[in-house]
Design a protein that fits this description.
The protein has about 170 residues and is of the alpha+beta class. The chain contains seven helices and five strands, in the order H-H-E-E-H-E-E-E-H-H-H-H.
Length: about 170
């Protein structure tokens, strides 16, 4: 299995992954966020992205105010971005949304290790399912996403799951 806790695998990936790697390196995003143990999650790492897919970076954050301050410092001044605070399932989080070169980017901070956050856990389950089900299944997921269906519901459609967000968290096959 790929090590998704670094972005090194992107260097050897498809063209979009290579471009994503170059943008993340150019702006030193992971280096600047290293104290928050950032992980790139979402569809680009597991190659089920569409033209609308963004770079989703999840971080472990204990001090929301400090993280918010750090986010304001890591991007160049000419980059437009928004930072919001939110409450998801009773847990406070800070979210940055912006655009770096060709990529929309979302940086998400929550007081939980990144590898325990739902975005990472969903991605790992999706990755395992994709490996098990093969390329035809992968193409069907991409087609559903192009039709406007979000990733987790697309898996739910193909797997017959009623609650794909929860079912992905329960998925443990190797």
């Amino acid at each position: 299995m790929l090590d998704f806790t670094t972005i090194d695998y992107l260097k050897e990936g498809n063209e979009k992954q290579k471009r994503a790697y170059n943008v993340l390196i150019k702006y030193q995003i992971f280096e600047k966020l290293k104290e928050y143990f950032p992980i790139l999650a979402g569809t680009i790492p597991i190659e089920i992205d569409t033209d609308k897919s963004d770079l989703d970076i999840i971080c472990e954050v204990k001090d929301m105010a400090g993280f918010e301050k750090k986010l304001k410092q890591i991007l160049p001044e000419n980059i437009d971005f928004q930072i919001t605070r939110n409450n998801i399932h009773g847990e406070e989080c800070v979210i940055l949304n912006g655009i770096l070169d060709e990529f929309s980017i979302e940086i998400f901070g929550q007081n939980k290790p990144a590898f325990e956050q739902n975005a990472y856990r969903h991605m790992i389950a999706e990755y395992k399912i994709l490996r098990e089900k093969g390329d035809d299944f992968k193409q069907k997921i991409i087609e559903l996403k192009k039709e406007g269906i979000k990733t987790e519901p697309a898996f739910g459609v193909l797997l017959g799951w009623e609650n794909p967000y929860e079912d992905l968290l329960k998925f443990r096959k190797k």
